[in-house]
Specification:
By secondary structure, the protein is an alpha/beta fold. The chain is built from 29 helices and 17 strands.
Length: 702
C-alpha cells in the first residue's frame, strides 16, 4: 500500500492496473492452458487462485489511487432527510468529514506542484461537452444541449454540481474515509461562531444545529435580521416533528398583523435595568459617554415613577414622558397626595390648594412668577412641584422627579436629545404594537411573550427583524432583546429558571441563541452575554460574514477581540477576507511537508591514463520544510457547504454539510406556505440558490 512508504505517491499513473492485466492473463492461461505450463489439474487450480488473489490485491491498490485521482474533481453532494438527522444528548452533529492532519496538507501541497496540477484539470471530452452545451443553447439544436446537461446516471459527461470552489480540499481526506463529525455538547456553553461569505452554507448549518436543539427539547431562540423563509420553515417542520408546535412563537417586524408581541423592557428585577437597556443603545465613546449618562438618569427617573404608579413600562410610555415630563410630575404628585391623605400626612383640601396654585401661576401672582428655567413648564406641573415642597413630603422617587423637572428645559432637552430619535424608531407604525403591546386588549389574538416565560416553558422563538427594510429599527429591537436576555441570564445564574414556582424537580433546559448576521445586533450588552451567560445555560451560536464586520460594529478592535475570545468553537466556511481567514490559519501549528528533489550530476576525469572519461549520478533527495497546516488560500477555495471546524481545545475537522431532502417539507399547512413565499419575495435569501429545492411554507397571513 502507498502509505507504507516514507513518501506517499498518489499523483502518478496507476501502474498497478498493468500488473492486474498481466496477472489476470496468466490466471486464465493457468486455468485453461494447463498444457502450456505442464500443470496438473490441481496445480492449475492452485496457480489460478494464487494469481487471481494477487491480481485482486493489486487491483485494490490501483483502484484506491484511481478513485482518489478522480475524486479530486468531483464530489457527490450528500442529501439527508430530517428523519435521518442524528440527534444525541451527548454530541452535536456537524456534517460529514474527517479530522485534518499533516497528511492532508501534504496532499494539497503535492497538487500545487507542476506534476500534480494536471490532476485538477477536467478531461478533454468533458470540456468539449460543456462547449457544445453552451454553443447550442437557445438554438434549434437546444435538445443536444439539454441532453449533455442531463443528470441522468448513464450520461458520462453530465456537468458537475455548481458547488464552486476546489473539491480537492475535501477529496484529499477520502482515502481514509469520512464519517459523521460529532463534537461533545460540553463545548456548547463556550459558544460558537460561524464565519463565511454569502451563499456558502451558513444557513444550512444553522438549520442542522437548530433542528437538533429542537429535537432535544431545549429552548431555541433564533434572531434573523434578514428574515430567511427557509430557516423559519425548517423550525416549523422540526417543531412539528418534535411535538412542540404549541411552543413555537413567530415574531417578525415585517408581519405585525400575525406576529407575536414582545415588550423588551417589561421584565426586570431592578427598575434600573430598564434605563440600562435603553441607554445601552446610545453612543458611549468619548464625549458621547456624558450624554448617555444623562439619558440613563432621565429614563431611570421615568421608569421609577411608572413602576411606583403600578403602570406597565414600555417604549410608548418612555417616549411619551420623555418628550414631556410635566404630565408625569402632576400624576405622581397627585398619587403621593392620595396616599399621604390615607396616612394623615396631607390635608384634606390638597386638591383645592393645588387648583389655587395653578391659577396663581396662570395669572402670574406675586410669588408665583416663572423663572428662566421653568418658563416652558405647564402651570399644573409647577403647582404640583410647589405643593410637594411646601407640604414637606419625603419620597425618593418624587425627589428625583422634581429635580429633573426643575432643570432648564431647553438645556436638559439638549442633553437627552439622543433619546427621542431612538424612541421614535421604536414607536412608529405597526412596530410599536409589537414591542409596546396593549396587555388589556383581550380581543387581540396575537400572543405576548417574554424571556422568562419562554425559558420556563421550553419555548421556540423565531425573531425576524426586517433589517433590509428598516435597519435602524431592526438594530434597536435586536439590541433590546440581547440586553433583556443578558439581564435574564443573571437571574438564571442566581435563581434558576423556576424561581418563585413550586419545586417540581424539573431540570433547567439549555437555552440556545442563534444570531444570524450578529454583527448587526451586537453592542456592549452582547459582551457580558458571552462572558457570563454560559453558567446560566445560555449557548450562543453567532453567524457573520467577516470578523471585520464585528470590529466595525463595536468600533473597537479590542472589544472585537474580547468578543472573539469567548467563542471556544469556530466554524469557517469560505471567506474572502484575509484577516478573517487568518483567525484559523494563525491559530494552528506548522507541520513538516516532504519534498522530493531529483539531483543529476556529471564530472569528467583529468587523468589521461584512466579509461574512465567521466562519471555521472542521479539521485532523489527527500527533505522536509515547515508549512501552515491550513493555508489562507485553502479557505478562499472551499466549495459551498464545506467548512473547517475548530473545537474541543483546538482539534480541527474538515466537514461538508448534507443538503435537505425535499420530502421534509410536505404536508405543511397552506398558511405557512403563503407566509414563507411572501417572505421569499420580499427578502431574497442568500442560501436558497445552492439548496436547489422548492421553498414551501404553509401559513396564510391575515
Amino acid at each position: 500500500m502507498a502509505n507504507q512508504y516514507p513518501i506517499e505517491s498518489l499523483l502518478r499513473p496507476v501502474v498497478e492496473f498493468y500488473s492486474v492485466a498481466c496477472l489476470s492473463l496468466l490466471a486464465i492461461l493457468a486455468l485453461l492452458g494447463q498444457w502450456l505450463f505442464f500443470f496438473t489439474p490441481d496445480v492449475s487450480i492452485l496457480a489460478f487462485c494464487i494469481l487471481t488473489g494477487r491480481a485482486y490485491i493489486r487491483f485494490a491498490q490501483g483502484w484506491r489511487i484511481y478513485r482518489y485521482q478522480k475524486g479530486l474533481l468531483k464530489l457527490k453532494i450528500p442529501v439527508m432527510s430530517s428523519a435521518d438527522l442524528p440527534v444525541s444528548k451527548r454530541t452535536l452533529y456537524m456534517g460529514i468529514g474527517f479530522p485534518w492532519d499533516q497528511r492532508h496538507t501534504q496532499r494539497l501541497f503535492d497538487l500545487s506542484l507542476k506534476s500534480g496540477s494536471k490532476y485538477l484539470r477536467q478531461s478533454w471530452s468533458y470540456r468539449i461537452a460543456r462547449r457544445i452545451e453552451r454553443y447550442f443553447d437557445a438554438t434549434r439544436f437546444e435538445f443536444l444541449s439539454r441532453a449533455l446537461a442531463s443528470q441522468i446516471f448513464w450520461n458520462p459527461l453530465k456537468p458537475l454540481p455548481a458547488s464552486e470552489g476546489q473539491p480537492a480540499i475535501h477529496a484529499v481526506g477520502l482515502l481514509e474515509g469520512e464519517y459523521k463529525i460529532e463534537i461533545d455538547l460540553g463545548v456548547r456553553p463556550g459558544h460558537t461562531r460561524v464565519l463565511g461569505t454569502t451563499r456558502v452554507g451558513k444557513t444550512r448549518l444553522a438549520e442542522l444545529l437548530i433542528a437538533q436543539d429542537i429535537r432535544r427539547g431545549e429552548v431555541v431562540i433564533v434572531i434573523d435580521p434578514k428574515g430567511d423563509p427557509d430557516l423559519f420553515k425548517r423550525m416549523y417542520v422540526e417543531a412539528r416533528a418534535a411535538g412542540r408546535l404549541d411552543k413555537l412563537y413567530f415574531f417578525h417586524l415585517g408581519y405585525p398583523n400575525i406576529s407575536a408581541r414582545y415588550n423588551p423592557v417589561s421584565d426586570y428585577l431592578r427598575v434600573t435595568e430598564v434605563a440600562a437597556r435603553v441607554a445601552g443603545q446610545m453612543p458611549g465613546e468619548g464625549p458621547s459617554q456624558a450624554f448617555r449618562e444623562f439619558v440613563w438618569r432621565y429614563v431611570n427617573v421615568i421608569s421609577k415613577c411608572l413602576n411606583a404608579l403600578g403602570k406597565k413600562i414600555d417604549y410608548e410610555q418612555i417616549k411619551y414622558y420623555g418628550e414631556d415630563i410635566d404630565p408625569l410630575v402632576v400624576e405622581y404628585v397627585e398619587f403621593l397626595m392620595t396616599r399621604g391623605l390615607q396616612k394623615g400626612e396631607v390635608p384634606k383640601d390638597w386638591k383645592v390648594q393645588l387648583d389655587e396654585y395653578e391659577k396663581s401661576y396662570r395669572s402670574h401672582d406675586s410669588g408665583f412668577k416663572r423663572t428662566r428655567n421653568n418658563e416652558d413648564r405647564t402651570d399644573r406641573a409647577l403647582a404640583a412641584a410647589r405643593l410637594y415642597k411646601e407640604l414637606g413630603l419625603k419620597d425618593n422617587v418624587a425627589h428625583s422627579l422634581i429635580k429633573t423637572f426643575e432643570y432648564d428645559k431647553k438645556h436638559f432637552d439638549n442633553l437627552v436629545a439622543s433619546l427621542l430619535p431612538l424612541m421614535e424608531k421604536l414607536c412608529t407604525g405597526k412596530c410599536s404594537e409589537l414591542i409596546s403591546p396593549d396587555y388589556l386588549d383581550l380581543d387581540d389574538p396575537r400572543p405576548i411573550f417574554n424571556w422568562q416565560e419562554i425559558i420556563a416553558t421550553g419555548g421556540i422563538v423565531y425573531v425576524g427583524l426586517d433589517a433590509l427594510s428598516d435597519p435602524e429599527v431592526a438594530s434597536a429591537v435586536g439590541n433590546s432583546m440581547f440586553a433583556d436576555l443578558t439581564a435574564r441570564s443573571g437571574r438564571l445564574y442566581k435563581q434558576g429558571a423556576y424561581a418563585g414556582l413550586p419545586d417540581a424537580g424539573v431540570t433547567q433546559s439549555k437555552i440556545n441563541v442563534h444570531a444570524d448576521e450578529f454583527n448587526e445586533l451586537i453592542g456592549d450588552e452582547f459582551i457580558p452575554l458571552l462572558n457570563k451567560a454560559g453558567g446560566s445555560g445560555i449557548q450562543v451560536t453567532a453567524y457573520t460574514q467577516t470578523w471585520s464586520d464585528v470590529e466595525a460594529r463595536v468600533n473597537s478592535e479590542a472589544k472585537a477581540g474580547q468578543i472573539g475570545g469567548n467563542f471556544n468553537t469556530s466554524v469557517y466556511f469560505r471567506v474572502i477576507e484575509p484577516k478573517t481567514a487568518k483567525l484559523l490559519t494563525e491559530s494552528l501549528k506548522q507541520v513538516p511537508i516532504d519534498l522530493l528533489t531529483t539531483v543529476s550530476a556529471a564530472s569528467d576525469s583529468s587523468d589521461p591514463s584512466s579509461s574512465v572519461d567521466f562519471t555521472s549520478r542521479t539521485e532523489d533527495r527527500a527533505s522536509s520544510q515547515l508549512f501552515d497546516l491550513i493555508h489562507v488560500n485553502d479557505i478562499y477555495s472551499l466549495p459551498k457547504g464545506h467548512c473547517f471546524i475548530q473545537s474541543e481545545g483546538g482539534k480541527l475537522w474538515k466537514s461538508r454539510l448534507p443538503l435537505p431532502d425535499k420530502s421534509d417539507f410536505v404536508n405543511i399547512p397552506q398558511n405557512i406556505v403563503d407566509l414563507t413565499e411572501d417572505m421569499a419575495a420580499k427578502y431574497h435569501s442568500c442560501s436558497r440558490d445552492w439548496y436547489k429545492f422548492t421553498p414551501s411554507w404553509e401559513q396564510s397571513h391575515v
